[in-house]
Amino acid sequence: MKVVAFFHGIFFKNQIVLRATDVRDLSLVKKMFDSKKSREERTGREILLKCEIDAPLQKRTFRQLGAIWKLVEIIFISTTPEMRKPTKEEMYDLYIDLLELYADKTPSKITGKLRPVHISESNTMAAARLIDGLLYHLANECDLKPDLQADVRSVIYEWEEWRGKRKLDLNDFRSVAEMRERVTYSEASGRSPVDFHHIVSRGAAPQFVDCAWNILALTREEHEEFHRKGWGCFLNKYPHLRPKVHRAFQKAGHLPVPDGFMEATERTYNEMKSLVEEATED
Q: pTM for the full model?
């Protein structure tokens, strides 16, 4: 079982200590460790965890092509009873079917009829629309087991961070109604169902209330948590959304400085350090 989430982390007294930013992820972590313990009791051997600790400040290019093929593979696995990976031929056949549903269309030079645009000939925006369609398909047509949910969440985190840094985004050309129809998963956590929250509030900039670039899709719980704790805690918990939030404030003419972000981060570090000290006392 895999868990993909954001964690607070410190390296203290030669130990790596992690704490989930979202308490709802703890149930997944507990389930993983319960499974690990059960397997170890059956086999009599310790099962080591395969971990990838990724600091989000490192520069990395989001690869649209890789994300598309990863999502196609997840869709195949989720619709196969034995949950197996596709062969190259099966992968390509499903890719062609998904192009028909979600890719841009262009006139054929031979027949003049519209045909899907392949990713090899797509520009950045066309590839972004295809990724958006594949995520829509996963949210509405697929029954994802925990491991596949983790894979999708990993793509969403990178996708949302990357698109928030672009000069042009899909939502620059959408209405709010179109966004409500297409984005049926939380941009923060990948969960469903969702509410729609204004980044720049109605009171601060009523002229942007109907702009899709000013909307975040969040679960009801995430939405309420934001209103209770503010941008500082929210972006500390979901750092991949910082570029989108900053971009929206820039477009509206207001650059935000999240209140209490550094203080919240320092407080979390000190709390975790105290817990480690207590646990390692002789």
A: 0.84
